[in-house]
TrEMBL record:
Cofactor: a divalent metal cation
GO MF, any single term: hydrolase activity
Keyword Cytoplasm listed: yes
Protein name: dTTP/UTP pyrophosphatase
Transmembrane segments: none
Residues the record marks as site: Important for substrate specificity: 13, 72, 154
């Protein structure tokens, strides 16, 4: 029998992406400390946090299931940008992203028993210059408080504000599914 697959994430986007990939899975989330040791690179930090998310559910589940956990951050000038604290923070973040390029990095940790697959994926995103009116419209209408970097590429701001992307679109949305699927197969 194939092992059950558990997504250790409350993110509706990750859930949707696995559904689009026609993966059969359940969701189980436990509270996780999303801090990370000082001095980690962004890639090391997202993998560390994804590992904490996976470990948080591991002892609640039978040993033979596959667990998938991920963490996504935006990185601008080597600084990690997580979710905005409030409206002002969201406006400040989007003003900093306007007219420039940043990268989005998602760390993925998958576990089955003693086996573990760990990787990260990086996508470069370039924004057009956004006007203050566009930024305020987006923040007030879409409230991107649960999104790393205060934006969602799959929403209005992604449609009208993004000049180019280099890498996996779905990685920006929170899960590099095309790399997750072969990793699931490798754990079967
Ligand atoms: C940059 C970007 C992020 N995001 C989302 C993906 C993630 O859900 C979120 C980053 O936060 P995360 O902390 O990675 O995930 P989460 O809090 O939503 O879920 P959990 O911790 O339970 O796994 O930002 C988009 O949906 N679109 C985007 O363009």
């Amino acid at each position: 029998m194939l092992p059950a697959i558990y997504l250790a994430s409350q993110s509706p986007r990750r859930k949707q992406l696995l559904e689009w990939a026609e993966i059969d899975f359940k969701v189980l989330v436990e509270p996780t400390d999303e801090s990370f040791p000082e001095g980690l690179s962004p890639a090391e930090a997202v993998v560390h946090i994804a590992q904490q998310k996976a470990l948080a559910v591991k002892n609640k589940l039978p040993d033979d299931v596959i667990i998938i956990a991920a963490d996504t951050v935006v990185v601008l000038n080597d600084i990690i940008i997580g979710k905005p604290k409030d409206r002002d923070d969201a406006i400040t973040i989007l003003s900093a992203l306007s007219g420039t390029s940043h990268y989005v990095i998602t760390g993925v940790v998958m576990m089955r028993g003693e086996q573990q697959v760990t990787f990260y994926d990086t996508t470069t995103v370039e924004f057009h210059i956004l006007t203050p009116q566009q930024i305020e419209f987006y923040v007030d209408k879409y409230g991107p408080y649960d999104k790393a970097g205060a934006y969602a590429i799959q929403e209005w701001i992604g449609v009208v504000g993004i000049k180019s992307i280099n890498g996996d679109f779905y990685n920006v949305m929170g899960l590099p599914v095309s790399r997750v699927v072969p990793a699931i197969i490798s754990l079967m």
